[in-house]
Design goal:
Elements (H helix, E strand, L loop, with lengths): L9 E5 L3 H12 L3 E6 L7 H4 L3 E2 L10 H11 L6 E2 L6 H13 L2 H14 L4 H9 L7 E3 L2 E5 L2 H16 L6 E5 H7 L9 E5 L2 E3 L2 H14 L3 E4 L3 E6 L4 E5 L4 E4 L1 E4 L6 H4 L8 E11 L9 E3 L4 E6 L2 E10 L8 H11 L12 E11 L5 E4 L5 E5 L9 H12 L15
Parallel strand pairs: 1-2, 1-14, 2-10, 4-18, 6-16, 14-21
Antiparallel strand pairs: 3-9, 5-9, 6-8, 7-8, 11-12, 12-13, 15-18, 15-19, 16-17, 17-18, 20-21
């Protein structure tokens, strides 16, 4: 570990998800003492129940032209993979207008170009974490599967790959028949008629990885305070005071806010005007007669399936609703309805680990990473579905910004934009 030369000796990190913990880890690499606070505990938010994919080929902006083509009527249906509950919420309306603008073809291509620059950098931080304390493995998908119910559906994903190539990115893939997919994963049904085999993609078990990361950060000297619900951050003149709902105060030289879908509650007073909307995802696990060994994606159904030991996690949905709203059982039923045709040998009534979590989504599809109007207050979040895949890279970039060594790449993710 090096020693920080910026005068920053102690940083408070608010949020013990993937981004908060990796920021803490990289601050430790620079010789900075870290205290991580969280109102619940390690990976209690969207870091727990997501698919755990580290997939540069699929790490793309959520807002894309096909979303607009599906039409408002489809998105207002509770059976839609992208669901917008009908409500007169001015904040949500402003977010949706911005989201729609950035889903237009020209804006979408600009976003693809940014992802094409970032994605090749995403895996190296995982290797650095593994080399110095994080013991939970990153597994390579050999290969990663995408399945389709028709050739027409497959053309949509292939078009996205063409845009990635034209933007300077690369995707290594082969086309496959339904039978070739079933040879790899017998649990796929005959309804799956074709697919794509992706190379160079990875996945993790999200809860176990977060636990291993948290343990590594603590072993390296960090203090973890749980049950610390931050309600205020104040500049003390020579540092910051991080204050909890119970009145407890933590003094540090600087603070990093990494609270996921709750970012706006603490960041707006520091000049961060971008709306961070909760895009709630749902998941559960089942135990098929033959448990898959490869991650499987069904793009048309927006169904993400990941093997986690002896079970298969089924996840998906994007529900633009208040992050603290109660789970909507209809969304679980929508996932089941999407999964039944594409799998065989699954008892859908024997599901476990039902979960809902709010992914932090920005209108332009890009994260908020870096300094705010207060030089002691920094932000990391707003990655949408890709907080796991891009979390360690974000932590590395953010740690550099905190100690006064910002990477030029951060210009693309300015929280004050």
């Amino acid at each position: 570990m090096s020693t920080s030369s910026s005068g920053i000796k102690h940083v408070a990190v608010v949020g013990a998800g993937m981004i908060g913990l990796t920021t803490a880890w990289y601050l430790q690499e620079r010789g900075v003492r870290v205290t991580v606070v969280d109102r619940t505990g390690v990976a209690a938010g969207s870091s727990w129940g997501n698919a755990g994919w580290l997939t540069p080929a699929l790490t793309l902006p959520l807002g894309e032209p096909s979303v607009l083509m599906s039409g408002p009527k489809a998105m207002l249906s509770s059976k839609s993979p992208l669901y917008i509950p009908l409500a007169l919420d001015p904040k949500l309306i402003r977010f949706l207008l911005g989201f729609a603008w950035h889903a237009l073809p020209r804006q979408w291509r600009k976003s693809i170009a940014i992802f094409a620059t970032v994605n090749p950098l995403a895996m190296e931080p995982f290797r650095e974490l593994a080399a110095d304390g994080v013991t939970e493995p990153v597994k390579e998908a050999k290969p990663f599967l995408a399945g389709f119910l028709s050739e027409k559906d497959r053309k949509g994903l292939l078009h996205e790959f063409e845009v990635v190539h034209s933007s300077g990115g690369t995707v290594d893939f082969d086309l496959a028949t339904g039978d070739e997919l079933r040879a790899l994963e017998p649990t796929l049904s005959d309804a799956v008629v074709c697919g794509v085999l992706l190379r160079g993609q990875y996945f993790i078990n999200p809860p176990k990885y977060a636990e291993s990361l948290g343990a590594a950060v603590i072993k390296r000297g960090a203090e973890l305070k749980t049950g610390f619900d931050v309600t205020d951050i104040r500049d003390s003149g020579d540092g910051v005071d991080v204050i909890s709902a119970s009145g407890e105060s933590l003094r540090a030289d600087a603070v990093v806010i990494a609270t996921g879908a709750w970012l706006n509650r603490l960041t707006r007073r520091f000049g961060v005007k971008a709306i961070v909307q909760a895009g709630r995802g749902y998941s559960f696990s089942v135990k098929p007669e033959v448990v898959p060994t490869h991650p499987i994606y069904f793009p048309s159904q927006r169904l993400a399936c990941t093997p986690l030991g002896d079970r298969l996690r089924i996840g998906g949905m994007m529900e633009f609703r208040n992050v603290d709203a109660a789970p909507d059982e209809r969304r679980i039923q929508t996932l089941i309805a999407a999964g039944r045709p594409v799998f065989q040998g699954v008892d859908w009534d024997a599901r476990e680990e039902e979960w809902v979590g709010g992914r932090p989504v920005t209108a332009d599809g890009h994260a908020l990473i870096g300094a705010t109007t207060n030089p002691r207050v920094f932000v990391g979040g707003g990655h949408g579905m890709w907080g796991i895949a891009l979390g360690p890279l974000t932590g590395k970039l953010l740690a550099g910004a905190v100690v006064g060594e910002p990477d030029p790449l951060l210009k693309q993710f300015d929280p004050l934009r």
